[in-house]
Design a protein that fits this description.
Elements (H helix, E strand, L loop, with lengths): L9 E7 L5 H14 L14 E5 L4 H12 L8 E4 L9 H12 L3 E5 L14 H19 L2 E7 L17 H5 L2 E7 L6 E7 L6 E8 L2 E7 H20 L5 H8 L3 H13 L3 E3 L5 E3 L5
Parallel strand pairs: 1-5, 1-6, 2-3, 2-4, 4-5
Antiparallel strand pairs: 6-7, 7-8, 8-9, 10-11
Helix pairs in contact: 1-2, 3-4, 6-8, 7-8
Length: 288
């Protein structure tokens, strides 16, 4: 793993809706690997050179992003940033492999995939074409022993399975090794980072926070969700001042009755609430 439990050697797809911070996350990844600092302040990394193809950006914007992400340590000697690169069908893939070998890159970031992949011929099957393009990138990653991250946009419509939300056919996700999805919402965090893949033993969902150009990991999405739920329930009980039944708490907080009931049971076990003989819950003294 280049980033512990998140990014193994191989080709990875980072997909997200437009304008929610994919490129900022890529800059953070590049900085972490170039300096050896934990990714998003939490996950250990293997330090090494980084090659970043910022194909949507420009030098002025890149300098601003780098200055905000860089902090006090300058990783520029291990962080190679370029804005012009030929497409895969025009020698871009061979150039990428040569550059990875030359620089000894541990991570290569392609932002965005649409400006790097070869255009699909009109008579080509979309799934088969995307699959073949993805496999070509994966082969380079495994031959060079590096992690190649290709960044891609999500579809406008949400899917039941987040893996299916990347724009285009399923051939792209099927041909790559690791899938990383960044999506705003859940648990009142800025976003949730979801990870799955062939070398990912345990799929994970991480609650993320974005501030001043940097992403940070708050914890697992479930832990953050439960923490926020507990805070909401506890403050509601404390503000009410009288014991409340789970149904009353659910009505006051707009949380589901099942979630309130389960959370109250956990809070009762750890002593943050108390229950009377009538089944009414109240905030325990000294647990504000």
């Amino acid at each position: 793993f280049i980033v512990d439990k998140l990014l193994p050697v191989g080709a990875a797809l980072l997909s997200a809706p437009p304008k929610i911070g994919k490129t900022w996350l890529n800059f953070g990844l590049g900085r972490a690997v170039a300096t050896g600092e934990p990714f998003c302040g939490s996950l250990p990394v293997e330090r090494g050179p980084v090659l970043f193809l910022d194909l949507e950006g420009n030098e002025r914007r890149a300098k601003l992003r780098a200055a905000m992400v860089r902090g006090t340590d300058d990783p520029s000697e291990l962080f190679k940033l370029v804005h012009e690169w030929p497409r895969m069908d025009r020698g871009g893939l061979e150039m990428l492999e040569a550059a990875i070998v030359r620089e000894g890159a541990r991570v290569a970031i392609v932002d965005v995939w649409a400006l790097f992949r070869a255009p699909r011929p009109k008579n080509a099957d979309p799934y088969q074409w995307d699959l073949e393009q993805a496999k070509l990138v994966s082969a380079v990653a495994h031959r060079t022993g590096t992690a190649i991250v290709v960044t891609h946009h999500n579809k406008k419509a949400a899917e039941d399975d987040w893996v299916s939300e990347a724009s285009g056919s399923a051939g792209l996700s099927g041909g790559l090794d690791t899938l990383i999805g960044l999506k705003r919402g859940r648990a009142n965090a800025d976003a949730v980072l979801r990870v799955t893949g062939r070398d990912i033993v345990e799929e994970s969902e991480l609650a993320m926070s974005f501030k001043d150009g940097r992403w940070s990991i708050l914890g697992t999405a479930l832990d953050v969700l439960m923490s926020k739920t507990r805070q909401t329930i506890h403050s509601t009980l404390a503000f009410n001042g009288r014991p409340m039944k789970p149904a009353q708490v659910a009505e006051a907080t707009d949380l589901s009755r099942d979630l309130v009931r389960k959370t109250l049971h956990r809070m009762l076990r750890d002593g943050s609430v108390k229950v009377d003989s009538g089944g009414g819950y109240a905030a325990a003294p000294g647990t504000g």
